[in-house]
Amino acid sequence: MPKIVSKSASKTKTVPYDVSEQLRTPEEMAAYLDAWFIDAPDDAVGIARALGDIARAKGMTQVARDAGLSRESLYKALGESGNPSFATILKVAHALGLRLHAQPA
Q1: Residue 3: what pLDDT?
Q2: Tens place of pLDDT for every residue, the chain, 105 residues?
Q3: Does 66 map to a domain?
Q4: Is 43 left (phi over 0), alpha (psi -120 to 50) or beta?
Q5: What is the pLDDT of residue 8?
Q6: Structural domain containing residue 66
Q7: Which residues of 16-49 are buried (b: 16+ CB within 10 A; e: fewer)?
């Protein structure tokens, strides 16, 4: 069987994907965080990163100000190696206009 060879070899160009660019409304932000709670309820780092994604979508400087934190500490707490306290999570959720709630498992 003959090989088909393209004379114009094109390269695939990739660009970084940033989910925060897709989070435009409070409903989208809440649904995104809720999906993390449902799909990966034990992934504390992932959930913190999801809060970071939402914070970037709203504007990290404003969220940090509203949460009473420095911008740098917010990036650190919600980053890949962050380990935010529950108090920080609550402050950030409030600053983002999100309400955490519980329901039976």
Answers
A1: 60
A2: 556 555 555 788 888 899 999 999 999 999 999 999 999 999 999 999 999 999 999 999 999 999 999 999 999 999 888 899 999 999 999 999 999 988 887
A3: yes
A4: beta
A5: 57
A6: 22-96
A7: eeeebeebeeeeebbebbeebeeeeeeeeeebbb
- 11 burial class (0-12, 13-18, 19+ CB within 10 angstroms)? exposed
In a domain, 77, yes or no: yes
Q: Give the number of other CB atoms < 10 A from CB of residue 68.
A: 10
Count the neighbouring beta carbons within 10 Å of the beta carbon of residue 53.
20
Q: Is residue 49 part of a domain?
A: yes
Number of domains in the chain: 1
Amino acid at 4: I
Q: Is residue 90 included in any domain, yes or no?
A: yes
Maximum CA extent, the chain:
68
For residue 85, the tally of other CB atoms under 10 A from its CB is 9
Q: Which DSSP category does 104 fall into?
A: -
pTM: 0.82
Q: Tokens for 1?
A: 């069987």
